[in-house]
Amino acid sequence: MMNSRMLFYFQRFSMSGSRHSIAVAAEVTISNWAAPGSSPSDVADVVLPNTVADSARHGTAQLPVLSVCERLQLHSAALAWRGCGLNERRFPKVAQAKINSTGLEKLVDDLLLRCWSDWRWFTHRVPLGSSTMLPGVGVFGTGSTARVLVPLLKAEGFEVHALWGRSEEEACCLAKELGIPFHTSRSDDVLLHQDVDLVCIYIPPSMTRQIAVKALGIGKNVVCEKAATAVDSFKMVTAARYYPQLLSIMGNTLRFLPAFVAMRQLLVEGYVGELQVCDVRVYGPSLLDQSYGWTCEELMGGGGLHTVGSAIIDLLSYLSGTRAHRVHGLLRTFVQQNGLIRGIRRVTSDDFCFFQMLMGGTGSSSVCCTVTLNFNMPGSFVHEVMVVGSTGRLIARGTELYGQRNGSKSEELLVGDNGWVGPEVKEMPLPLLQGLSSMVKALRQSFQAKEERRCWARGPVATAPTFEDGLYVQTVVEAVKRSSSSGEWECVEIMSQEPDPNQNLCEALKRNKN
């Protein structure tokens, strides 16, 4: 038996969810470690931020007299640093008890021993629990995607506990419409909500990085849309790597569409032979909002290339199993003003985009990809992805998949449209709608495979794009934009470290000196 005394310092999160900068010291006796070779110092490194754990390795302090709920909440906050938690739900009877400081010290010891008695549970290797639990969900956004996502989540058994909107009025209106009990315009209120363990972020790209990184930092699983820049994407990748036990995926729903899942499988099986050409066409109505906003601004992530083209770039990488190394593109903004956007304001985001990508090997072994995006066609929608190989071709039209081998006189239907039984949404095309539904089902299967609600299985969401994929996609998008400005082919170079924020200033000063 090994006995050791340790002093833990960590930040307190109150029961209401607001943050208080109160350093709490608790003298804890830890004994009877079940795992051979484990030590209290090992646990300190896992439970607490390293900078705190190092400074609080040893010491003694007077145990503060706090309520049981406060103590449990403090420990829940400490454990949340590494994405696992101990909260009132695991000890409902204890949380209602009233004891003195002596009994409280014993209770804390018992709770810590119970939490750490099985080291495998603590590291999320073998979760404990008597019943399957799905994580509570917090949704960021009040747009068309959020309106569809919430009913889909509820249909699969998820409980949506909180909704964030840009204004209290927006959040309140949608929360009442969708039956969500809590709404707010402050992001921290959702992230610190005690019932939220999965965060779905569908907000303007310029805000995505801030919310996603913060959510991972306090132990929440994250599903989010694309960021605005490659630098933002890199910061998201860094956060995801630091918390590998947490779910962190991009919300490109096309990967989950049954037609593309089947296309990927047929390509692996050699239906088309050696892949040679990919050709994509997406035509539809304007992507602009009814009023001037981020969709009008290219720098804020608006435009067809960033909004739709990023999903296509990711899809082609998923289908081909390769990545682009050179790109060439052309972007145009044909509608710079309309009846609602006029005066001094002008649209800078693109409504037409054409780009080419060389993917995979070099020279003649590269896969040639062409993508055409045109959002000047009101009243119509075309979504067609064709891959051509040495022995045949596959074509996905909308939600249906067709195939034709060389020598065959006609196409064959490989995956049909089984019909959409959910609500119709004018702002969301059917391929994205069905893909979103399939992604939510995959999330349910992923979390149901584990007994602890914060744990997830990789299998059901193995095809989902990671934050690394998001960084690659954003790098390609920026390379296409550079090519449109220069008129030249541009190389795709994924950043390996965050650039110096003062780099442009330093270069300007050097030029002035010369």
Detailed description of the structure:
There is one protein chain. With 514 residues, the protein is α/β, with parallel strands linked by helices. The protein has three domains: 119 residues, no CATH class; 150 residues, NAD(P)-binding Rossmann-like Domain (Rossmann fold), CATH 3.40.50; 182 residues, Dihydrodipicolinate Reductase, domain 2 (2-Layer Sandwich), CATH 3.30.360. The chain contains 16 helices and 17 strands. The strands form three sheets. A nine-stranded mixed β-sheet has the order 16-15-14-13-9-12-11-10-17. It has a six-stranded parallel β-sheet with strand order 5-4-3-6-7-8, with helices on both faces. α12 packs parallel to α13. The chain starts with a strand and ends with a helix.
Summed up, the helix count is 16
- Strands in their spatial order, largest beta sheet: 16-15-14-13-9-12-11-10-17
Mean pLDDT over the residues: 77
What is the percentage of strand-forming residues? 15-25%
Q: What structural class do the secondary elements suggest?
A: alpha/beta
What is the overall shape?
Answer: globular
CATH topology of the largest domain: Dihydrodipicolinate Reductase, domain 2
Per CATH, the architecture of the largest domain is 2-Layer Sandwich
What is the CA-CA span between the terminal residues? Answer: 70 Å
Q: Over the alpha carbons, how many angstroms does the gyration radius reach?
A: 26 Å
Please indicate the count of domains: 3
Strands, count: 17
Largest sheet report: 9 strands, mixed
Keywords:
17 strands, nine-stranded mixed sheet, globular, 3 domains, Dihydrodipicolinate Reductase, domain 2, alpha/beta, single chain, 514 residues, disordered N terminus, 16 helices, Rossmann fold
